[in-house]
């Protein structure tokens, strides 16, 4: 979703914090960065409550306010009047409203990071990643055009002929307009798409097209002219397929080796600076890894743009973690999951880097009662973007009953870590046994043609603790090396997303796990992206495989 020609609202805003359960006082005696997480500022460190941010904006008439992430929820006020509510933390939204006469207006965004313990909660306190309060991501405003998009989709329809399918669903002053003019890149050729009440669909051959791939991440731009308004959309042409148990990109078999990555930083929470996002991907590529699972929520536009440009393959998923039967069967939870999963896919639809889309990490998918929601979510993703494969990270192994709804089987598994054995050093027999059981499960008749991925696997490693024993850097390196070798040398796999890219903040104890010093230490890099032994080891292995 590109929100161009906008006035960026990033900067230092006025700030006010009220504690848990209290009515915001809005005295604004403090200041805070935007984007930013207030609960990482020294005064409010790890506190819960409502943080209100204020600034003034000079604008007037119909405007659009873009918000890419507010946590855990937020209310937006314009000159004291509430104009929007955000109830899902990584939701990308454009709010259109009348800003009034052209002058300086007051904009207040109040965010709240108290937990919601209801069954319908989108972010429960047992999730194994820290629930920060703040304005996580980009916030920007622009003058609204008379015509605006509900949906603009550009998806690949044929890679041999370089054809894309363009779907327009426009709103506003559109009823008298019967055609959209489409130009690709700097070509002189003009195409026309018929519109009826702002809606239209057509297939177009992109002149001088180039396919997108990790080796050659070529992008195209479509200029879609509707009346006086031009929508500019970047996209890529590529085909992703699952067949005979393998994943193919443009007809070439893919082997995925990469990491689960939280879009987070110990000092900035989910308000990750551009430089960090860019460097994270640069070091990933330096290691020769080729993919990221954006665990466990929709990714920022900036990150997806970088992956498009740098040729990094992405699994994007909607927010969820360990959701149990009570949640999965709760109509409110279901409605929010479906709404947010759909919104995620629509917002990131033109990004060729996304090859997999998912939802509900480690939900209770061994239960029959999980089936209706899993089916609905998979159907939603297939309907919005049929060019991506659908999957979900399952931790119930061969007890999973929902794999029939998706194309790719993804297993989160922790041999030699959560298995209950007390071995001091990595037990390779156990690695083989656990992976063997998953391979057996994935060879059942109804599953054998679906690609298999180890979507999480790992062990904690304390930075600078050495010796090969549990919790040491070498223990983690030995385990991850064994996994990468196993999935690379065994034909059944399409790869693995190791858990995890770098150490991340969570809780010392939150009911679902105990974490030393409130960090998850399963990073191959430490929290500030300093390599541990496993990072170097995987780099060597990938070099050896000429990855
Ligand atoms: C889970 C989960 C991750 C993380 C990991 C761990 O399977 O999906 O978010 O919590 O395990 O470190 O235990």
Identify the overall geometry: globular
Query: How many separate domains make up the residues?
Result: 3
The CATH superfamily of the largest domain turns out to be Glycosidases
Return the structural class.
alpha+beta
Write down the overall mean pLDDT: 97
Tally of separate helices: 8
Report the uncertain regions.
none
Q: Please, could you describe this protein's structure?
A:
This protein is of the alpha+beta class and 547 residues long. It has eight helices and 34 strands. The chain has a nine-stranded parallel beta sheet with strand order 28-27-26-25-24-32-31-30-29, covered by helices on one side. α1 (274-286) runs parallel beside α2. The two termini are 32 Å apart. The mean pLDDT is 97. The site of alpha-D-galactopyranuronic acid has 10 residues, from loops.
Q: Can you describe this structure in just a few lines?
A:
This protein is of the alpha+beta class. The chain folds into three domains: 7-143, Galactose-binding domain-like (Jelly Rolls, Sandwich); 147-238, Immunoglobulins (Immunoglobulin-like), CATH 2.60.40; 251-544, TIM Barrel (Alpha-Beta Barrel), CATH 3.20.20.
Key structural traits:
547 residues, nine-stranded parallel sheet, Immunoglobulin-like, six-stranded antiparallel sheet, alpha+beta, 34 strands, 3 domains, binds alpha-D-galactopyranuronic acid, Jelly Rolls
């Amino acid at each position: 979703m590109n929100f161009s020609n906008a006035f960026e609202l990033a900067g230092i805003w006025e700030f006010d914090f009220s504690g848990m359960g209290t009515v915001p006082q809005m005295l604004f005696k403090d200041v805070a960065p935007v984007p930013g997480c207030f609960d990482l500022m020294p005064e409010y460190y790890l506190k819960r409550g409502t943080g209100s941010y204020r600034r003034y904006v000079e604008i007037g008439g119909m405007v659009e306010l873009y918000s890419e992430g507010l946590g855990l929820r937020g209310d937006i006020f314009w000159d004291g009047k509430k104009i929007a509510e955000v109830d899902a933390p990584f939701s990308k939204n454009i709010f259109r409203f009348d800003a009034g006469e052209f002058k300086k207006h007051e904009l207040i965004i109040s965010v709240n990071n108290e937990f919601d313990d209801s069954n319908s909660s989108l972010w429960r306190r047992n999730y194994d990643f820290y629930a920060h309060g703040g304005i996580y991501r980009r916030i920007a405003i622009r003058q609204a055009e008379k015509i605006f998009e509900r949906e603009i989709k550009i998806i690949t329809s044929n890679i041999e002929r370089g054809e894309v399918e363009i779907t327009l669903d426009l709103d506003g002053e559109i009823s008298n307009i019967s055609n959209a003019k489409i130009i690709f890149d700097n070509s002189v050729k003009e195409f026309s798409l018929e519109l009826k009440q702002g809606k239209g669909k057509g297939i177009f051959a992109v002149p001088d097209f180039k396919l997108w791939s990790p080796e050659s991440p070529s992008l195209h731009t479509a200029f879609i002219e509707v009346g006086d308004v031009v929508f500019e959309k970047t996209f890529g042409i590529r085909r992703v397929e699952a067949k005979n148990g393998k994943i193919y990109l443009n007809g070439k078999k893919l082997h995925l080796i990469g990491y689960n990555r939280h879009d987070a930083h110990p000092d900035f929470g989910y308000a990750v600076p551009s430089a960090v996002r860019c460097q994270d991907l640069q070091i990933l590529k330096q290691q020769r890894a080729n993919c990221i699972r954006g665990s466990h929520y929709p990714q920022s536009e900036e990150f997806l743009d970088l992956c498009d440009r740098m040729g990094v393959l992405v699994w994007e998923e909607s927010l969820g973690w360990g959701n149990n039967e009570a949640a999965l069967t709760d109509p409110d939870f279901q409605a929010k999951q479906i709404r947010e999963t759909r919104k995620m896919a629509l917002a990131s639809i033109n990004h060729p880097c996304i090859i997999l889309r998912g939802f509900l990490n480690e939900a209770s998918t061994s239960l029959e009662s999980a089936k209706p929601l899993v089916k609905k979510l998979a159907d939603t993703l297939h309907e919005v973007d049929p060019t991506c494969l659908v999957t979900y990270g399952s931790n119930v192994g061969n007890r999973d009953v929902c794999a029939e709804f998706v194309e790719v089987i993804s297993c989160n598994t922790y041999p030699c870590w959560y298995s209950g054995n007390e071995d001091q050093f990595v037990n390779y027999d156990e690695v083989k046994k656990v992976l063997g059981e998953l391979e057996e499960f994935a060879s059942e008749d109804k599953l054998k043609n679906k690609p298999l991925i180890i979507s999480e696997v790992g062990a904690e490693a304390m930075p600078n603790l050495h010796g090969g024993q549990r919790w040491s850097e070498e223990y983690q390196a030995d385990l991850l090396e064994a996994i990468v070798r196993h999935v690379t040398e065994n034909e059944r796999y399409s790869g693995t997303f190791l858990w995890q890219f770098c150490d991340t903040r969570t809780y010392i104890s939150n009911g679902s796990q105990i974490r030393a010093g409130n960090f998850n230490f399963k990073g191959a890099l430490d929290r500030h992206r300093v390599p541990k032994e496993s990072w170097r080891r995987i780099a060597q292995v990938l070099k050896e495989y000429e990855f």
